[in-house]
Hints:
The protein has helices spanning 2-6, 53-64, 93-103, 117-127, 149-155, 162-182, 198-209, 215-222, 253-258, 283-293, and strands at 15-20, 26-32, 38-43, 68-73, 109-115, 137-143, 235-238, 262-265. The two termini are 32 Å apart. Strand 5 (109-115), helix 4 and strand 6 (137-143) form a beta-alpha-beta unit. 35% of the residues lie in helices and 16% in strands.
Amino acid sequence: MYSSLFRKTKPLPFKRKRITTLDDDFLDIDLLENGSDKIVILCHGLEGSSDSKYIQASAALLAKNGYAVAAMNYRFCSGEINRRLITYHSGRTEDLHAVINTVLPDYNAVYLLGFSLGGNLVLKYNGDGIYPLHPKIKASVAISVPVDLHGSSIKLQDLKNRLYTWRFLRTLSNKVRLKHQQFPDQVPIDRLKKVKKLIDFDEYFTAALNGFKNAQDYYAKASSKPFLKSISRPTLLINALDDPFLSESCFPNAEAQENPHFSLITPRYGGHVGFVSTGKHYWSELEILRFLKKY
């Protein structure tokens, strides 16, 4: 919470680029271009954006060290409602693929960096085999990732997570109201009264609007954990043991031991996308840079 509430970051001189998706929707990408031939695609967490402090801080450090940056904004996360009925979610790797294809022609090396929900996207993209990985994709890092969405949904029901849940549901519910205005016959606004937990939101809206049978079907199909064994490029996952969002099932020790391409670091402290430390840059950001520099 400290990082989110009190960390000071300087606004970056992003240049926004809008791309059209195959289903005639749009994605906004915020770019830091510095003449480099290598670029890092940043994927934010639930209800985040390129304005999130962890995105801004990571982008600043990467740009300082010779990487171009493409900070992805998911559908309806860049300040403007998206055109289609569907929403972003933890498994929508087709949008990440669209961003990758956009930057590929201009760079010799591409790296992926995801936080929380965005980390799940990055890990799933690396392992699910839906899109063949381009040779230019060199390495990936994922931070504070609920690799088992079902386990995380149960953990989020803990009393200590009530504040987090309230905060997420407030912004998600506001987006549902706007979606209802856009598609009054397809977005059942009355179901908002039944939403008390994030799993309720996923049941009545995430699943319903994105072609899943229910929340459990969404969790099963969108979780990255089943695909970690198939990751074939250097990939690092950092999940703190005190992360309030993560169940025991979100620490894939066995998968890391069995797959030489997949590494797992589980520091005792760090919280959820926290890792607060003294100095200008947080510990996790320096670990990201260290890992990417190896490849």
